[in-house]
Structure prediction request, 154 residues.
Amino acid sequence: MALKQRVGLRRLAWGVMKNVRLGTIATVGDDGAPYAAEVFIAADRSLRLYFLTKDSTRKAVNLAKDNRVAFNIVEGTFGIQVRGRAAVLKGRERVAALKSLVQKAASMPDIWPPVSRMADGGYIVFRVRPTSIRILDLRAVSSRAGEPVIQEVI
Prediction:
């Protein structure tokens, strides 16, 4: 794939990811079976994802044993599929991720996201470093142009 096209796909992926508030995360359970759940997310320009969860949730327990993760994000006619590795954040990186998650939460007046319950304690903030990102483009113009519907971003 040409560099220009790859840069364009990264910009498109960032354009979708920066505005999305919810994503479906899949983790690997003890028995090797997948587990999926909805989480509130934030993203950065490097296309890394951030989310928080209680330390006792199934996803947190699964990630403590196997940090492989997959995400599916849908926004309008776009879908983003992310595979990567999750890590618990500490210090300044945790504070920066929390700031992004709080900003997202503030833009959702009708929803009471988990970040609003941080004072209860026991929450972990994760960062997902993508190893693979694919974008699904279902716009009619893309379909008519004969372009592939799913393209590799990284």
